[in-house]
Amino acid sequence: MSGFYDYFDVAVVGAGHAGIEACLACARMGLKTLVITQSIDAIGRMSCNPSIGGIAKGNIVREIDALGGEMGKLIDHSMIQFRLLNKSRGPAVQAPRSQADKLTYSALARKTLESTPNLSTLMDTVVDILTTDSDENLPPNTDSSAEVGSIPGEVRSGQISGSENFSIHKNGKRQKVIALVTERGRVIPVRSIVLTTGTFLGGRIFIGEYDAPCGRLGESAAFGLTSNLHRLGFTTGRLKTGTPPRILRSSVNFDVLEKQDGDEEVIPFSFETEKVERPMVPCHVVYTNEKTHEIIRKNIGRSPLYSGKISGIGPRYCPSIEDKVMRFAERDRHQIFVEPEGLGTEEIYLNGFSSSLPESVQDEFLRTMNGFENAVVSRPGYAVEYDYVEPTQLFNSLETKRVAGLFNAGQINGTSGYEEAAGQGLVAGINAGFYAREHIKTCGPLVSSDSSVDSRAASGESGAFCPKAAYSKEELKENWGFSEKQSHQIGEKIEKAQRDAGFENYRKIPQYAPLVLGRDEAYIGVLIDDLVTLGTKEPYRMFTARAEYRLKLRYDTADRRLTQKAFEAGLKTEKQFLAVQEKYRMTDEIVALLEKKPHSENPGYPEKIWEEAKIDFKYKYYIEKQDRRVEKMHRMENFRIPQDFDYSSILSLSSESRGKLEKIRPATLGQASRISGIRNSDIMLLMVYLR
Prior knowledge:
Blueprint lengths: L7 E6 L3 H12 L4 E5 L13 E3 L3 H10 L4 H6 L2 E7 L9 E6 L1 H13 L4 E5 L2 E12 L35 E10 L4 E9 L8 E4 L2 E3 L1 E3 L2 E2 L4 H7 L4 E8 L2 E3 L9 E3 L22 E5 L2 H9 L5 H4 L13 H7 L7 E6 L6 E5 L7 H8 L10 E3 L2 E8 L13 E2 L1 E3 L9 H26 L29 H28 L22 H12 L23 H12 L4 H23 L10 H29 L19 H10 L4 H5 L6 H11 L1
Parallel strand pairs: 1-2, 1-9, 2-6, 8-22, 9-23
Antiparallel strand pairs: 3-5, 4-5, 7-8, 8-9, 10-11, 10-21, 12-13, 14-21, 15-19, 15-20, 16-17, 17-18, 18-19
Helix pairs in contact: 1-10, 2-10, 2-13, 6-9, 13-14, 14-15
């Protein structure tokens, strides 16, 4: 029975899109699961764009669904517009995208969590993770592989004054999760933890000269945990993102805007949804103009992006409107998508119009656009800066190298986007569940905390513990010393309970076979491999060009690639698994038929399966050719690049990639492939020109 003194197999910190997938996966695997969020009312909240899917992102949502996740079902039951992007191009680059009714989406997400067996919700803030020494040595390459000083807002634990007195890994042993601590003083024993902190970890928002400690406008940031991640030895940095102003629909003249209707045929995101039956509404398009740009240029010094107040790096592919105006001075206009936020709200969203300029300036330049002359702003645009854990400190399972049983997912790993977060959350949740299952077998029971374990609730009173962005050397010594004391106290209780039950493995790290998705199996696999191998110094966004096997990763084949893995994890039933097997047995039959008679008519197969098989047949040659090129690229890992190679001769290279290659001048193709931001498609182009 849940209560103040309780324990859990898995605790998930945060209930955004990553946290939802992580906690549902663990609970559905039969594990006693807790999700902790600062506000239960904010579960599944769409902080920014009220949409799901898009190029590569739509494929990720399909992969989440095939793996037993929830995002596809949530958007199927909350969408208010659907479009299949790139319809005029081949199926390999097509992707579904939907506008969501954001209030409905969040309500459905909350209802799903609250009605799931084995899952409890708790409204609180996590400030600490308690660990014990294990019997394993630290693995090699535990520290961030990023060059010292190269991470925005970089903090390395070894450089914190006084941290040498609290080197938790001083004996060279890996740590192991035993409990977490909340702001209100709860000490909760756990087997594994998934951190999905979003923009709330050390979050601060900026609107012109105004700034405040928030993860979203009006919602408090989470402080205290970052400091304790430093205590555990992790390197952190600062990233930035932004959101546009929200406008009241009734104050906009839609008659003069370009209308953008959705598709008549709606393709469900979930393989299990037979048909989407939702009311659909149009979006619109508007453009900035020279007057808009003039106001922005005149006030650019008041933007925290340009005044130096923000140290974090923002998303390269989703810049603020002031960034667009300053970086692309030759452009006389920028396209803005006007998107409804839901059927039950007056607010509309201006996609491509994020800003951190003062509200007065936002009001002024907003009203220069056609149809927005009388626009009423309900919420201003703002930038938000937050902490992230540099992701090369993770295994491909998303478990941290330094601390066994601790997993990170979402923006804490440096990504942007709901879909990227959810995909990581599902993988981290599954692996945290695998870890917890083996922990039960290897280590034995957990025991609840009680009044014998010292605890302290946060307070604003002078001299009391108060979570905040930065601590003095003396405060760190006190805080970290208290963490050691709590770890020792709760550790003794857990170890005794396990010994009493006949287990002698308190310090043993349970061994499990993690779910690791290959780059040829899923966009989620590409995403995670990029993060843990290359790291990131800017918010990572998934693109089809990042995937060298993208012809295999079509949105309509995700069930074939991933359903068996979901079944083996306990997230799909045998009936579901067998249905997918039967579907692709027929697909293979059809492809074999078409290889003999390419122009055959459908002899009686279900029409949907027939059409998908025709696509498989059409792409078969191209996929085989792609695989040969990728294999050749891997063989040429050590192929040398002349130091005077002219990268400008490769016209298809983006200016961003060309600039990085010219600056770093990699010696080999392998070194070039490990440059942050260089895509596999760039390496393939380079390989062709070098031959």
